[in-house]
Each structure stands twice: as C-alpha cells, then as structure tokens.
Amino acid sequence: MYRNRNRELHRCIADTKGAFVQPTLYEAFGLTVIEAMNCGLPTFATNQGGSTEIIVDGISGFHIDSNNGDESSNKIANFFEKCKVDVECWNKIILEIILEHDSFWLLLISLGLKIIFGF
Q1: Phi, psi dihedrals of residue 12, rounded to the nearest 5°
Q2: How far is Cα 107 from Cα 48, in angstroms, rounded to an integer?
Q3: Closest CA relative to residue 40, chosen from 70, 4, 12, 3
Q4: How confident is the chain (119 residues) per 10-residue block, as mean pLDDT?
C-alpha cells in the first residue's frame, strides 16, 4: 500500500517537472537514487558513494557536493533556470535517465538471477 503511494508521489513530482535531491554525505548503494530515476525524476545526488556509479553527471542526473551547499544549490537552481529557457531541457534529462536506467536495470536483473539461481 505505501509503496504505491510513494510511486504516486514521485509521479506527481515528475508531472509538475520537479526533481529528486539527495544531499547525504555518503550513499553506499543509492537505492533512493534508482527509485527516483525509475519514476522519471531528474536526480541530484551526492558525489560520494554508489550514486556516482549510477548517475553520469550532467547527462542522466547530477552529482552534488554535500559539503558545499552553495555550489549544490547553484547547480540545482541552474538546472531549473535552464529548463525555463529551454522547455525541452527537462525532457532531455528524463530521456537520458530512461536510456541509462534500462541498461542498468538489465544488469542488476542479470546479476540477481546469477546470484539467486546460479545462471
């Protein structure tokens, strides 16, 4: 039940051209990043840990430095300012997320099947 509600919230944010921001100091795996990207949200995540392996900075999302709030907030603000000027900006990043994310999920699924079932 809660899972569906969370997905609806992410969709609502995406439909209004919002974004997901994860300003943690370190993220070991980045499951929240994957979930946000899966919902089609432009994602700003820490430049430390697992999110660096998931996001290609400036292409399928953005890395932010949680130790530098001014730089991080400027990067987020610049993205939205760019989207005001170029209405396709938001859509371009979403397309990259979808293209990158599909191949990432296929990799995770194949690794999971190998681990669980041995093939």
Answers
A1: -60, -40
A2: 22
A3: 12
A4: 57 80 84 80 90 85 94 95 89 76 59 53
